[in-house]
């Protein structure tokens, strides 16, 4: 059975109800073991993931769950999940460091695929854990914010464009030097700390681009956001300009660029 967008929203709201009250608290910041995604899990991550799993079980969902903390796990009936090709790619708290420090920029990210690769992602929800704004998209039906259809901006390099930049720590100044032509053409740079939310900022036209050069960027961070960007008429591509369409996996990591249509050619040429 195909999962509905309303169910995905309900799960995201369940996470909000539990996580929002503890944002910035010492409870949220308690550290645990290293999660399957490679980062040290904090209590806020584990709690959010627990809520998601309990929500799926209560709704009798049969799916493969790909999540930052537990990795890959079948929920419900494994055979039914396989036969239905149901896959959920989830980051329970995207922007965990912001969340535990009380920086108001974090989200829960949920992507639903019927199949095994990125192109099979059909539905997506990203919920702002501070404001409760909910972004969502269904493939072929557009992207929405709180029920209102959204689109990327139509700004170009002659306007005051803003982009977010995410760089690896190693050789950071080398990267900065190589990006100088891009810096010179944009009005402002931001580093905000939640990939999923930043992709939604592009989708609603608040910023124009996101350049993420970190090889360690994980699928769970962007699976939902990339569909929302595309359904808002934005672009999402690899550093060599090609489409990103790899197998859904907890181990999948890749750098990427997302932008509005007017900046696509410029960014592909410069990168």
How does this model look, in words?
The protein is of the alpha+beta class and 271 residues long. The radius of gyration is 18 Å and the shape is globular. It has helices at residues 5-19, 26-29, 43-58, 78-84, 96-101, 172-178, 180-185, 195-203, 219-231, 264-270, and strands spanning 31-34, 40-42, 63-67, 71-75, 86-94, 107-114, 121-128, 134-138, 143-145, 148-150, 162-166, 188-190, 209-212, 235-237, 256-259. The model has no long low-confidence stretch (mean pLDDT 94). The chain folds into two domains: 5-148, Fructose-1,6-Bisphosphatase, Chain A, domain 1, CATH 3.30.540.10; 162-270, D-Maltodextrin-Binding Protein, domain 2 (3-Layer(aba) Sandwich). The protein is 33% helix and 27% strand. Helix 8 packs parallel to helix 9 (219-231). An eight-stranded mixed beta sheet has the order 4-3-5-6-7-8-9-10, sandwiched between helices. Strands 12-11-13-15-14 form a five-stranded mixed beta sheet. It starts with a helix and ends with a helix.
Structural class given helices, strands, pairing?
A: alpha+beta
Shape: globular
Rounded average pLDDT: 94
The level-1 CATH class of the largest domain: Alpha Beta
Count of helical stretches: 10
Amount of beta strand: 25-35%
User: By CATH's scheme, which homologous superfamily of the largest domain applies?
Assistant: Fructose-1,6-Bisphosphatase, subunit A, domain 1
Tell me the major beta sheet: 8 strands, mixed
Specify the CATH architecture of the largest domain.
2-Layer Sandwich
Radius of gyration from the alpha-carbon trace, in angstroms:
18 Å
Cross-sheet strand order for the largest sheet: 4-3-5-6-7-8-9-10
Question: First CA to last CA: what distance?
Answer: 42 Å
Number of strands: 15
The overall number of domains is: 2
Helix content: 25-40%
Write the CATH fold name of the largest domain.
Answer: Fructose-1,6-Bisphosphatase, Chain A, domain 1
Q: Specify the oligomeric state.
A: single chain
Parts with pLDDT < 50 across at least 5 consecutive residues: none
Spell out the helices and strands N to C.
HHEEHEEHEHEEEEEEHHEHEHEEH
